[in-house]
Design brief:
This protein is mainly alpha-helical. About 65% of the residues lie in helices and about 10% in strands. The chain folds into two domains: about 60 residues, Arc Repressor Mutant, subunit A, CATH 1.10.10; about 45 residues. Helix 2 crosses helix 3 and helix 4 crosses helix 5. The two termini are about 30 Å apart.
Length: about 120
């Protein structure tokens, strides 16, 4: 995901895969299935994600529980919008993208545009 470092993206992936808010320890447990990191590392990453607006947190006793500020799909759409705006030629980028779409992706986009036109 654009704007996230490798570890931040891994932490966000954990939070996006679950429905309930997670503590630092919960996230650490998931992350440590693939690697070994310290509790303080994950705590720092979650604090940074909170500061950047990627996650929200609520205090539960002495610990914070974290949840994504937006769904993965919304974050990806925002990243795409930022990327398009940074190119200087968003129409050209969209045209190149559309030419490479699969039939299924094209059908999904067509339906979304039709729904948008009805509003």
């Amino acid at each position: 995901m654009q704007g996230l470092g490798e570890l931040e993206a891994a932490v966000m992936d954990v939070l996006w895969r679950v429905e309930e808010p997670r503590s630092v320890r919960d996230v650490l447990q998931e992350i440590n299935r693939d690697r070994t990191l310290a509790y303080t590392t994950i705590m720092t990453v979650l604090d940074n994600l909170h500061r950047k607006g990627w996650v929200q947190r609520d205090r539960h006793g002495r610990a914070y529980h974290y949840r994504p500020s937006q769904a993965r799909e919304e974050a990806a759409a925002d990243a795409l919008r930022d990327l398009l705006e940074s190119t200087g030629d968003p129409q050209g980028v969209l045209l190149h993208f559309a030419r490479g779409m699969s039939d299924e992706e094209s059908a999904v986009l067509r339906r979304a545009l039709q729904e948008r036109g009805r509003r």
